[in-house]
Write a sequence for this structure.
């Protein structure tokens, strides 16, 4: 699999506090936000290396990884929230 990423991190494209508040507003209370914040600070190319990041953008993983996957792949936040609440 070949991934092409913009330069930078998720912090360059999203407001972490705004994303967190949207998830919490819609019931995503058990998310480990310290892990999500750490992912936000990583260079986007980090997510192309499954061994380094610990998950695949194709198959997702836990809640925190699913949030990151949704943002990177451009899914609407509402869709990812609905998926997490299943």
């Amino acid at each position: 699999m070949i991934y092409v990423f913009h330069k930078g991190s998720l912090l360059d494209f999203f407001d972490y506090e705004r994303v967190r508040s949207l998830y919490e507003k819609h019931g995503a209370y058990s998310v480990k936000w310290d892990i999500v914040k750490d992912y936000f600070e990583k260079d986007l190319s980090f997510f192309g290396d499954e061994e380094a990041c610990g998950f695949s953008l194709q198959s997702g993983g836990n809640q925190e990884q699913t949030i990151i996957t949704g943002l990177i792949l451009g899914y609407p936040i509402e869709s990812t929230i609905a998926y997490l609440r299943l």
About this structure: The mean pLDDT is 89.
